[in-house]
Write a structure and sequence with these properties.
128 residues; mainly beta; Immunoglobulin-like; five-stranded antiparallel sheet; elongated; ApaG_sf; ApaG_domain
Length: 128
């Protein structure tokens, strides 16, 4: 598990290898991840958007941006957390993801970024 705190918002990430399959005649490596967003600050906040950079061992880079996470824009009061599961496909058995969430602080209406720490994606069969 990797963790990072930015402006009182703690991000924790766990990953899993889900398997391989073929898509468009190419092998794909499927990875899942579980992210917990914990509000350790004294203010209520809302997650509005996400921005990802996804890398694989073959030097492919994919940028993904969008509103919320899995269709939600969670509001977190102090001490609350939100956990969700998602996944990605890579064209190699190794890779990594990193990014940030765009959030708003309800006490002063300021927008801020919360770093999502870089986390590795690796298929267990490919490890030495």
């Amino acid at each position: 598990m990797v963790q990072q705190v930015t402006k009182g918002i703690k991000i924790s990430v766990d990953t899993t290898f889900e398997g391989t399959f073929y898509k468009n005649y190419k092998i794909q490596f499927a990875f899942g991840y579980e992210i917990t967003i914990e509000n350790q600050s004294k203010d209520s906040v809302q997650l509005n958007a996400r921005h990802w950079t996804i890398f694989d061992a073959l030097n492919h880079v994919v940028i993904v941006s969008g509103e919320g996470v899995i269709g939600k824009k969670p509001v977190l009061k102090p001490g609350e957390s939100h956990t969700y599961n998602s996944g990605c496909l890579l064209t190699s058995p190794f890779g990594a993801m990193k990014g940030y969430y765009e959030m708003v602080n309800f006490s002063n209406t300021t927008k801020f970024h919360v770093a999502i720490p870089t986390f590795k994606l690796s298929a267990p069969f490919a490890l030495n």
